[in-house]
Amino acid sequence: MNDWSIQQIAKLAGTTSRTLRHYDDIGLLTPTGVGANGYRRYDSAALVRLQRILLLRELGLSLPQIAEILARPAAEEDALAHHLAWLRAEQHRLGRQIAAVQSTITALEKGEEPMAKDMFDGFDHTQYRDEVAERWGEQAAADSDRWWRGMDAAAQGDWKAQTAALNAAWQEAAARGIDPDGVEAQALAARHVEWLRGIPGTPASDPSGDVAGYVRGLGEMYVADERFAEGYGGVEGAAFVRAALAAHAARI
User: Fold this and answer.
1) Contact, 157 vs 151, CB < 8 A?
2) Regarding beta strands 3-5 and 33-34, do their DSSP bridges make them parallel or antiparallel, or are they unpaired?
3) Is 199 helix (H, G, I), strand (E, B) or coil?
4) Partners of 34 in the beta sheet?
5) Long-range contacts, stretch 220-227, CB < 8 angstroms, 24+ apart
6) What would the DSSP string read from start to end of 1-65?
7) Residue 199 buriedness (CB in 10 A; 0-12 / 13-18 / 19+)
8) Domain 3-71 classified CATH 1.10.10.10?
């Protein structure tokens, strides 16, 4: 069985020995063993666990949140499959962004005017503007768009991280097959609604709005529209979110 030193693992993972020692100190990543020289050693199972830790960090989760997720019973391959689904959705979005920027560069190089309708494909938030306008009106779309464009890059990054962490939590809960009407899923649904309340222009942000109806409608949309379903690991994951949100809506 292969094993690696802490320095080798740090180099492979693009992290530092100090970070790995910290993960050990807090019980997040325990070395497989310690050599006679006192150096930590890691086997392939530890590498898989470290891969999951780094993926969850990319999603914006804190170390205590990651520890909680890793402590839950789930096959490593199933958990990684859900990570992979999110990464593929992100890859698809980034591919559209790359194509949009390349198209702008090509037009500028040719002395042509860039096609406005293609310039922002794949950029978060704006890609769903038409759906927002159709479902909740132009004012809602304008308020939401103004809110997004009013944030600086750091604030937008924080919001993306929060969104990714929420999606990851939904995927992980769905993978474990917990009860959508149970305490844990309902706490997640409440967190989802609070996330929605922070987006101006949505019915959830309006104290007099039909929040319950809005939440139920979103659940249906998550399942019906594959772009949204991707964020929850596919149709099955989106169906779990829909069931949890519907149960939560009944309590609003």
Assistant:
1) no
2) unpaired
3) coil
4) 40
5) none
6) --EEEHHHHHHHHT--HHHHHHHHHTTSS--SEE-TTS-EEEEHHHHHHHHHHHHHHHTT--HHH
7) middle
8) no
Give the pLDDT of residue 236.
92
pLDDT tens sequence across 55-82: 888 766 778 888 888 887 667 777 777 6
Residues whose CB is less than 8 angstroms from the CB of residue 61 and which lie 6 or more positions away in sequence, other chains included:
69, 165, 168
Computed on alpha carbons and rounded to an integer, the radius of gyration of the chain in Å comes to 21
Structure token pair of residue 163: 């969104």
From the centroid of its chain, how far is CA 193?
Answer: 16
* Domain coordinates in residue numbering, the chain: 3-71, 76-249
Structure tokens at 78: 């199933």
Q: Which residue has the tokens 């938030």?
A: 125
Amino acid type, 112: E
* Average pLDDT across the chain, whole number: 81
CA–CA gap between residue 119 and residue 213 (Å, rounded): 34
Token digits for 41? 């050693």
pTM of the model: 0.55
More confident residue, 171 or 94: 171
Beta pairing partners, 40: 34
pLDDT of residue 114: 67
Angle (nearest 5°) at CA 174 between 75 and 45: 20
Q: Distance between CA atoms of 135 and 131, rounded to whole angstroms?
A: 6
Question: Residue 87 pLDDT > 80, yes or no?
Answer: no
The larger pLDDT score, comparing residue 234 to residue 83, is at 234
Pair 200, 143: CB distance under 8 Å: yes
- For the chain, helix (H) and strand (E) counts, in that order, are 12, 3
